[in-house]
Amino acid sequence: MNWSDRISHTLYNFFLDAGMSEASAETINMVILLIAIAIFIGLVDFSLRLALRRFFNQFAARTKTHFDDYLVKNKVPRNLAHIIPLFLAFKVSPIVFSDFKPYANYTDIALQVLGVILTLAIVRGLLKTLEDYFKTLPKLKDKPINSYIQVFTIFAWIVGVLSIFAILTGISFGKFVTGLGAASAVILLIFRDTILGFVASIQVSINDMVHIGDWITFEKYGADGDVIEINLATVKVQNFDKTVSTVPATAFVQDSFVNWRGMSESGARRIKRNIHIDITSIRHLDEGLLDALMEIDLINSFMVDRQKEIDQSNSKKKSQSFL
User: Fold this and answer.
1) Left if phi > 0, otherwise alpha if psi is -120 to 50, otherwise beta: which for 296?
2) Cα–Cα dist 89/36, whole Å
3) Taking the complete model, does pTM exceed 0.70, yes or no?
4) Which end of the chain is more exposed for a tag (fewer CB within 10 A), N or C?
């Protein structure tokens, strides 16, 4: 019997000596080991998170660069702290479930899935950190950093999801991707509209093109009103006459439309109008016209204030010419 078996069966032998049945001893032994190891791994995880967070906070405070600040902001140290506890869980799970092999297999699969999810969280945090940091560089301010980061993020999620499916099905990643590639032609043919709508909805959300509540004008589809719903394949717009227009999500990527959000957020509206002025009606203001304008209540205060400004300006010019 090796050392792992000795550890896992120490309590088991004790329970057998106490007069318990083998089934009861195995079950209680597993439960106690599981609780003890879960508490131990939880303490290790908490200690590592606390230590890494403190280290990165102190390191970020001492350095001039903001890259480490963005690492802390996007929880990269916190996710890195989970690696060692997860590794410990991989190592001790066979000891805990030494008498329950099916449970050991299920636990191993669950831990592998958690490992993929943790890897995705770390990669996402690093990509988000790079995005935030690159935006602060003057040379890259006019570059589409968001688009590049989004491509890498989508690729990472695709690989992660495929890895999880491969783990759950028990098929190797290479064989799983190969089989998926063979069936991709049929999948694309059947779900073409759904896939296009899904991709378009992601682009609309990521590029911040349309929000629920935005006032948009889409002449091609007769839509002119507020966005009330954004679905996988369609966007619903409630027009000013309370009718509802349904616009395909792909149209927002392929065609041109007007979003009035900027005008609404500014709290003002610019209006373009043509003003026709008769040139023959333009002349100098004489005393008769000035008195007539003074009698109009709507512009009387303006005319009085304007006259005072003109008189003050004339008096200053006269004093300067005298000096």
Assistant:
1) beta
2) 12
3) no
4) C
Three-point CA angle 60, 66, 67, nearest 5°: 90
Q: Taking CA 217 as the corner, what is the angle to CA 212 and CA 222, rounded to the nearest 5 degrees?
A: 110
Per residue in 235-289, pLDDT (tens digit) is 889 998 889 998 888 888 888 889 888 887 777 777 778 888 888 888 888 888 8
Sign, CA torsion 239/270/300/284: negative
What does DSSP assign to residue 80?
H
Residue 223's φ and ψ, nearest 5 degrees, are: -100, 125
Cβ neighbours for 113, distance < 8 A, ≥ 6 positions apart: 164, 167, 168
Q: Which residue has 């909805």 as its token pair?
A: 201
* Closest alpha carbon to 48 in 95, 88, 92: 88
Look at the block and give the residue holding tokens 């439309």: 257
Q: Is 65 helix (H, G, I), strand (E, B) or coil?
A: coil
Rounded CA-CA distance 33/7 in Å is 10
> CA-CA distance, 297 to 200, in Å (whole number)?
58
235 vs 252: CA distance, rounded Å: 9
- How remote is the C-alpha of 141 from its chain's centroid? 20
Give the pLDDT confidence of 8-31 residue by residue, as tens digits.
555 555 555 556 666 666 667 677
Q: Nearest CA to 200 among 169, 232, 175, 226? A: 232
- Per DSSP, the three-state class of 243 is coil
Asked if 196 and 203 touch (Cβ cutoff 8 Å), the reply is: no
Q: How many residues does the chain have?
A: 323
Tokens 């990165």: give the residue. Answer: 56
Round to the nearest angstrom and report the end-to-end CA distance of the chain.
114
Confidence band, pLDDT 50/70/90 cuts, at residue 1? very low
